[in-house]
Amino acid sequence: MNHFPRCWRIAIALLGLATICVIPSLRGGNDDKSVAISRVSKMPSLPQPYAMRDWPQVTRDYLDLIFDFDHHGEFLPLVSWLDDSHKMVALPSYVAGVHDPEGINYLAAVISGSLVGLDMRDFHGHDWVSMSENFYNADEGVYVNSLRGQTGKSFWYDILPNIFAFQLSAIYPEDGQLNERTTTVAEKWRDVCRALVDSRSNPALPNFDHTGFRLSTMEPAEQGWIEPEAAAGIAWIEYMASLRSQDARFLEAADLALRSIESRPVHSTRFFCRIA
């Protein structure tokens, strides 16, 4: 298996865990047990001299490059239409790569542009937000990484597009269809949490020691490695859904997913692990 995506999985899992850990406990309790570390306290927020790169401008330049149909040159333009009706674009995940768009690449670009102040509903004359709906699998009720794709090959590739969908929904709250679909997303991953509960364990918690989960059959998928860090991503989705809807069932699913991580013995934790 390619090790580069594995590094991405590690990064997003740590990000997900960090995001979740900074919120108050889902089971009550607000005690602040943080302790000041004198050595760390002496570290400046920004070292001097230091020049921060203009990352918003980098983002704008990047989007101007990848979403420009008229930018010609070697390997350019990067974007092209997949159909005559202009409902979806072809976009490589890297220069000279296959032009089949990936959700983790396309959705991240749309979100990035939105966060630097661009209206991605009318960027370069096209509605890139609406095109993101092409990654929604209506049969499974979740967003997937490839057009007409299905879940089950990898938790990471299945969960991250849905995290991006929630972010888009927060940026464009007036998009009723996007809001409705993200609610369905939370319901589906809540069902996954319940389906993975191991009644033999004490306490009964979801067992994420699988490669992925096939929503079409509601069964875990095995490909020779496990991705239990999926619990962090699902917990994030469920918690965000609970904040939006105040539905206690989403909060319960987030709690289940978090406790499945907490229950793993530190000395024997196997994250991102290939099974021999």
Task: Indicate the topology.
Blueprint: H1 3-21, H2 38-41, H3 55-66, E1 80-81, E2 89-90, H4 103-115, H5 128-131, E3 136-137, E4 142-143, H6 155-171, H7 176-195, E5 197-198, E6 205-206, E7 212-214, E8 219-221, E9 225-226, H8 230-245, H9 248-262, E10 273-274
Antiparallel strand pairs: 1-2, 3-4, 5-6, 7-8, 9-10
Helix pairs in contact: 1-8, 4-6, 6-7, 6-8, 7-8, 7-9, 8-9
Describe this structure in words.
- The structure is a single chain.
- With 276 residues, the protein is mainly α.
- The chain folds into two domains: 81 residues, no CATH class; 139 residues, no CATH class.
- 43% of the residues lie in helices and 8% in strands.
- The chain is built from nine helices and ten strands.
- It has a two-stranded antiparallel sheet with strand order 1-2. Strands 3-4 form a two-stranded antiparallel ribbon.
- Helix 6 runs antiparallel to helix 7, helix 6 runs parallel beside helix 8 and helix 7 crosses helix 8.
- The longest helix has 20 residues.
Features of this protein?
globular; two-stranded antiparallel sheet; single chain; 2 domains; 9 helices; disordered N terminus; 276 residues; mainly alpha
Biggest sheet details: 2 strands, antiparallel
Number of beta-strand segments: 10
The whole-angstrom Rg is: 20 Å
- Count of folded domains: 2
Strand order of the largest sheet: 1-2
**By helix and strand content, what is the structural category?**
mainly alpha
Overall geometry comes to globular
Distance between the termini: 13 Å
Number of helices: 9
**Pattern of helices and strands:** HHHEEHHEEHHEEEEEHHE
